[in-house]
Amino acid sequence: xxxxxxxxxxxxxxxxxxxxxxxxxxxxxxxxxxxxxxxxxxxxxxxxxxxxxxxxxxxxxxxxxxxxxxxxxxxxxxxxxxxxxxxxxxxxx
Length: 93
Fold this sequence. Notes:
The protein is α+β, with helices and mostly antiparallel strands and 93 residues long.
């Protein structure tokens, strides 16, 4: 592997789904990550999120991309492709 191949960013396309869960006596609802899928293209991740969001037990779904620096392992902030249903605020990531 050459230096240029090692320093090239790797892009991950993710579909992530959420479930609603009641917490404590107050019955407040929190979101919990249910499933996570990684795809090789943005359209695959977005299509999966759209299908998952239609599921009866799915509270919401995100499709997003993140860039990873292979040399350090650092992952950047997500860039959302689509956010469907009840999803957490961005600052909760």
